[in-house]
Amino acid sequence: GGQVGALDGVHFPIRSPSASDVKDPTRYHVGRKDKYAVLGMAICDADRRFLWFNVSQTPNTHDSLAVTLTDLGMRIKAGDLPPDFFINADAAFTVSNSLITPIGNGGTFDYHQSSNRIAIECAFGELVRRWPILWKPLQVKFSRCSCLISACASLHNYCIDKRIQDA
Question: What is the pTM of this model?
Fold first, then answer.
């Protein structure tokens, strides 16, 4: 048993979608970051490979809701993971039999829980660093943003599998 992955979300900057792209372009504006974005939710393993990657929710969707709205999220919430296994997440999520989050007291448990969760932060950082197209707002049609980001995540996994460092 034990941890099967680390879960978190990240914003990928995009140029402002038009009204012909989406019904309400303002849903893709992240006020606290003053940019347009799409939300990527992912689970990675200890090698920083993405085990699950989802770009289906608007960027202002809370991370926990963004996951809950997916098939995988519904299965996690239903407790479909075997009893001895769990996914590690940050305080944006609600603790359950399948999901472990910090206690919030800054103690030993939180330290180890954070240490085991850091892989997802690093995976997102490596993904963006590896693919320069992700360094600034995506300059592709809005309808292609999710596919492009997902393709970069798949190529990221390929590079890890083949031990390619400078891709």
Answer: 0.94
